[in-house]
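Figure S7 source data.
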Amino acid sequence: MEQTLVLIKPDGVQRGLIGEITARLERRGLKLIAAKFMQVSPELAEAHYAIHKGKPFYEGLIRYITSSPVMAMIWEGPEAIAAVRQTMGATKPTEAAPGSVRHDFALEVGRNLTHASDSPETAFQEISLWFKPEEIISWERSTDPWLFGKN
Ligand code: DAT
Ligand code: MG
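Tokens for the predicted magnesium ion complex:
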């Protein structure tokens, strides 16, 4: 079972879209295993976006993610990494598939509402960067067999 880090960025929080976005993940069948509402420090932002350091949008990206609180979560499920990125849509909202979060609620790449891990390696790194092991809850959901069943 995969786990993936999801952030609802400051624009999502400010615009009152926490419920809308998490509802889509819940409705799809993904399972929430950790969540915290937090102000991101410059140190955490820089570690999270280290791969983008030096790019023209890097400084603005750090300012954006630290500008106001975020909702950080870990979601679990079969192919959770691909599933969540599909639910969020392409990085540039005008290229995001209709029905995706970024298509339905965003216009600009600099205000694209969410972050989601893009591979098993980055998911592992990002989960350990954002959450302590004791903040992650392994739990039995009564609907798991109806969502995670293989035939
Ligand atoms: P994603 O968030 O879809 O994984 P990414 O990892 O390529 O996208 O980039 C991280 C964030 O950086 C992205 O959500 C928004 C910002 N970003 C990426 N490309 C950008 C660009 N060309 N101009 C402005 N911001 C950009
Ligand atoms: Mg990315």
